[in-house]
Each structure stands twice: as C-alpha cells, then as structure tokens.
C-alpha cells in the first residue's frame, strides 16, 4: 500500500499513510505532521511522493513509509517522561535531516544527534532544520534539541552515548560493534544489514546488557560506506 500513499501536501501524505495503516500511532502521526518533507528534498514537486529520492552526494532520503516503519519500531524505547529510557537518540546517515527532525518531535526533551560523513549534507541538513524551526542547540542541562555532526556514523558518537535509540539510514555489511556498545541499557537499534540482499535488523540491549538480534523484513538501502567512496559514486 506504500505506493498509494503519495499526496499533494504533507498533510495528505500523512493522512494517506494513516489510511493505509502504515502509521498506527497518533504520536507518530503528530510528529510527522510537524516536519514538512518539502524542506528536506531538493525538488519540492516530488516532496510528498512515498518513494526514496536523491538528495545529492550519492545519498538518498528514504521513502516516508520506511521512516514510519522505523518510528513504529523504535517508539517503545523513546526517552520521554515517566519512561525507563533516559539516553539520547542517534540518527546515523542523517542525510537531509528529515528523520532527525521527526525523532526530535517524538522526544522533544531528549538530545537527538544526527551524524553524516558528507559535510555538504550536514551543512544542508542544518539549513533544513532551521527552516523547519527545529532547535539546533541542546538546553543548559544538555537535553533537548538537535546536534548535527560530520563523521563516520559506523563509529557512532561516544561523547553523546549511551543512546536509548539508534536509527541507521544506510545498509551496513555487518552490524557495527561501536553502535551496539553505545546502546543504552535498555536500548534499541533499527539498522539495514547486508550486501546486495538486505534486511532490517532490530538490535535490543536489555537492562543487564544482553544483546538480542532480530531480523524483521527485506529492504533495499544505499550502503553505509566510506565518504571517499560515496564521493566517487562507488556505492
């Protein structure tokens, strides 16, 4: 039903995903309504298509229904009030910043860290977030707001760990151990894994530190690769 979810406006896109049962949570619906996709894609004409789009530098923004799947999977681990989850949120391969913004609205009092290894994408994502009114600096207590970093997302961001949630927006050949290490106790990671044939994996870490890996469904993502290879188009 994903291909039927495209709309002419952001509101229509979200309404169609709700109608097609791609979004089942009012919390996710509200967060995605607050983030206008046209601010995060190069061509606003295609902003509300439920399909992946090129955003430059050999990178893509995932289809809206894939972002909805990610949010659904991670929802129960959100670091919000009266929750056992107190870590930050990490968005690896943050690209144009769209899902980083959605994650901010899902947990507005928590720090959300976006990381991408292409400086041009980081710079553009900051402009996109500013256009959308997303706060870029954390509060005095270090919580809330968004930080956008340029770096190798496979290594995570140790200085901001632990993370209650880690979302990875590109496919790794294997699950990067540093990301597992930086998961909070408890914590969850949503990551596409594989070369050629890929699957979404759910990585859970319990309060005792036990790690459980669950394969969810098949996907097709661009690879999580070196910045130099991405610049050369070796994807």
TrEMBL record:
- PANTHER family xref list: PROTEIN-L-ISOASPARTATE O-METHYLTRANSFERASE (PTHR11579), PROTEIN-L-ISOASPARTATE(D-ASPARTATE) O-METHYLTRANSFERASE (PTHR11579:SF0)
Q: Cite the GO molecular-function annotations of the record.
A: protein-L-isoaspartate (D-aspartate) O-methyltransferase activity
What's its top-level EC category?
Answer: transferase
UniProt signal peptide: none
Tell me the protein family, please.
Answer: Belongs to the methyltransferase superfamily. L-isoaspartyl/D-aspartyl protein methyltransferase family.
Keyword check for Transferase, yes or no: yes
Keyword Metal-binding included in the entry's annotation: no
UniProt keyword annotations, A-Z? Cytoplasm, Methyltransferase, S-adenosyl-L-methionine, Transferase
**Where found in the cell?**
Cytoplasm
Record organism: Kwoniella dendrophila CBS 6074
Any one of the GO CC terms: cytoplasm
| Gene Ontology biological process terms in this record | methylation
Q: Return the EC number.
A: 2.1.1.77
Classification via InterPro entries: PCMT, SAM-dependent_MTases_sf
UniProt protein name:
protein-L-isoaspartate(D-aspartate) O-methyltransferase
């Amino acid at each position: 039903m994903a291909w039927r979810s495209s709309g002419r406006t952001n509101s229509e896109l979200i309404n169609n995903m709700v109608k097609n049962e791609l979004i089942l949570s009012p919390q996710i619906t509200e967060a995605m309504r607050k983030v206008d996709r046209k601010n995060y894609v190069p061509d606003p004409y295609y902003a509300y298509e439920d399909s992946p789009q090129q955003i430059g530098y050999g990178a893509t923004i995932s289809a809206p229904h894939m972002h909805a799947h990610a949010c659904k999977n991670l929802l129960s681990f959100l670091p919000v009030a009266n929750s056992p989850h107190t870590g930050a949120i990490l968005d690896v391969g943050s690209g144009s910043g769209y899902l980083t913004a959605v994650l901010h609205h899902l947990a507005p009092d928590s720090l959300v860290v976006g990381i991408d290894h292409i400086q041009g994408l980081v710079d553009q994502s900051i402009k996109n977030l500013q256009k959308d009114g997303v706060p870029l600096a954390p509060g005095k207590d270090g919580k809330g707001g968004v930080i956008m970093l340029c770096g190798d997302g496979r290594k995570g961001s140790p200085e901001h760990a632990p993370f209650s949630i880690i979302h990875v927006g590109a496919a790794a050949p294997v699950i990067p151990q540093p990301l597992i290490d930086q998961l909070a106790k408890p914590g969850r990671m949503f990551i596409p894994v594989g070369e050629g044939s890929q699957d979404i994996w759910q990585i859970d870490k319990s309060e005792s530190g036990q790690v459980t890996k669950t394969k969810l469904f098949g996907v097709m993502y661009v690879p999580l690769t070196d910045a130099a290879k991405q610049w050369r188009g070796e994807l």
